[in-house]
Amino acid sequence: MATNKKWLASADRLTARIPSAVPAYQRIQSAIRKRIDSGQLHPGDPVPSERDLAKIHHVSLMTARHALASLEREGLVERRRGIGTFVAPPKIHFNKLMSYTEQMAARSLTAGAKVLFAKIVDSENEAAARLSLPPTSSLLKFERLRHAAGEPFALETCYLNAAEFPGLLDAPIGRVSLFAILERDFHVELGYADEEVDATAADPRIAELLAIPRREPLLRIRQVIYSAKGKAILYVLGFYRSDRHNLVIRRFR
Amino acid sequence: MATNKKWLASADRLTARIPSAVPAYQRIQSAIRKRIDSGQLHPGDPVPSERDLAKIHHVSLMTARHALASLEREGLVERRRGIGTFVAPPKIHFNKLMSYTEQMAARSLTAGAKVLFAKIVDSENEAAARLSLPPTSSLLKFERLRHAAGEPFALETCYLNAAEFPGLLDAPIGRVSLFAILERDFHVELGYADEEVDATAADPRIAELLAIPRREPLLRIRQVIYSAKGKAILYVLGFYRSDRHNLVIRRFR
DNA sequence: AAGTGGTCTAGACCACGGC
DNA sequence: CCGTGGTCTAGACCACTTC
Predict the structure, then answer these.
(1) Alpha-carbon span A103 to A112, nearest angstrom
(2) 3-state class of A82 per DSSP?
(3) How far apart (Å, rounded) are the C-alpha atoms in residues A9 and A23?
(4) Are B250 and A224 in contact (CB under 8 A)?
(5) Domains, chain B, with CATH or none
(6) pLDDT tens, residue by residue, A157-171
(7) How many Cβ pairs within 8 Å bridge chains A and B?
(8) Where on the phi/psi map is residue A75: left (φ > 0), alpha (ψ -120 to 50), or beta?
(9) Cβ of A1 < 7 Å from strand D?
């Protein structure tokens, strides 16, 4: 108990009267993250050692250690035995689930989209199946033509369960990211997406919309986007001009 | 020191005289892994609690805890506060770097390949560039026609630095997985691969080899495979029949 | 109340890398 | 040699879940 009296004393001194404020190791992480985000610490710079952190934050070695160990798991720092802990080089985000808008923003481009279609449908049984819904469920269906640099680029059709997203039909889908609307207005926490990729030939309609010859090869991506809890939220069927789009993924052994 | 005498005593009892045998938390992990692999423990089954493991293996709570925590990071178990630790359901391996042979084996199919070409070349500058080598480097070049269920399926061309893999030309590439040869005979530890995926149309030669009409859409995958240390080892250019192949990836938010 | 995982202490020794 | 991270102890209290 002597142990814990001392711990209470130190926690007291820092932030909390209630024992259950924010765990100490998370406070330490926040402090380090802040110094990295604010540019005080750059990639390659040393982070205070476990022992220093323990002194600075008035915690035991194990706690400081825990803070650094999970920062390493996140890829924010690298630890080298006998040497120290260092800010990790900025990581390229492979295989990250991003909206088209976010992808463009990541490359400092602006996204453009023209809504071709936005209605409720009830006989698209393949789309319903992808969302794990009964075959004739009411679905919101948006069809959008994506642009980049003034050129048509991709045709994407999105499907959502109409019952779960009332009012979404009236949202400014043409201007605002669908992801942003789902997360902000409907409090959906997006988690992951499974994608099936194959190649197909442009049919006459798609060829005209994308301004390419008929039978031109296209990348076809069928994407089912799930919430963090694993519930199917959104099905997107996309056709991408293969001369303007190329999918990059990283696989690990 | 009283503390550490006790620890030495327990380590002694189990495996080691030398203090630096295998860390206790790793021994605990091995024991659990073994019980899962051998079928003694099935997905959903409870794993002994931290306190039980500590007693069983004569270690402190923190050590038992460490063992379970890193097993959870690996995805082998799931921990639920107030409930316990349970064997995780077998995970589908998304975005895993696997050889064609391994992919087929995962689906209990046998892989077939016919070697069309196996020589050293020195004027394939694109391939050399992908491997971060000078433009006219000597490269091993293999061209293989993949089969599945008796049907031609994909055309893959592999390039490696000739200087680093002497004797590989004589290896039984037609029968044994290239990955296996690299890992076993050349002690290369494969780490990850970056892939570029797009769609293209079959040219006359590919159309004939794959037994499909000319201009048929194909999936084209350019894959650079790196060692665990980040060195480019292998460049694979593949053309896949889109009616027989479809690429599945998972993205996370 | 009992049992679980989550956080934490105040130390210890070991293995490693640079001086 | 000294400082770093890696492993470990023998406890403690908290938060949560089930009974």
Answers:
(1) 12
(2) coil
(3) 15
(4) no
(5) 2-87 (1.10.10.10), 92-246 (3.40.1410.10)
(6) 999 999 999 888 888
(7) 112
(8) left
(9) yes
Q: Is A57 helix (H, G, I), strand (E, B) or coil?
A: helix
| Order of strands across the sheet that contains A77-80 | A46-47, A84-87, A77-80
Give dist(CA A67, CA A50) in Å, integer. Answer: 9
Q: Which two tokens stand for residue B126?
A: 């694109």
CB of A35 less than 8 A from some CB of B: no
Measured in residues, chain A has a length of 253
Nucleic strand D within 7 A of Cβ B13: no
Closest CA to A140 of A171, A112, A111: A171
Closest residue by Cα to residue B219 from A201, A99, A194: A201
CB B124 within 8 A of CB B138: no
CA A49 to CA A60: how far, in whole Å? 13
Contact between residue A102 and residue A119 where contact means Cβ atoms under 8 Å apart: no
For tokens 């004939």, the residue is B208
Query: Does residue A205 sit in helix, strand or coil?
Result: helix
* Residues of chain A positioned with their CB less than 8 A from the CB of B247: 196-198
How far, in Å, are B9, B108, B201, B204, B210 from residue B42 at the CA level? 33, 22, 47, 52, 43
Q: Which residues share a beta bridge with A28?
A: none
Joined tokens for residue A104 = 């463009």
Among chain B residues, the shortest Cα distance to A198 is held by: B246
Of A50-54, A158-162, A176-180, B64-68, which range is least confident? Answer: A176-180
The model's confidence at residue A154, banded by pLDDT at 50, 70 and 90, is very high
Contact A250 B197 (CB under 8 A): no
User: What is the β-pairing status of strands A247-252 and B190-201?
Assistant: antiparallel
Q: Measured between alpha carbons, how far is A92 from A180 in angstroms, rounded to an integer?
A: 22
Q: How is residue B125 written in tokens?
A: 């500058």
Query: Of A16-20, A146-150, A192-196, B61-65, which gets the smallest average pLDDT?
Result: A16-20
CA R_g for chain B:
24
pLDDT tens for A220-238 read 999 999 998 889 999 999 9
Residue B235 amino acid letter:
Y
> Distance of alpha carbon A10 from its chain centroid, rounded?
37
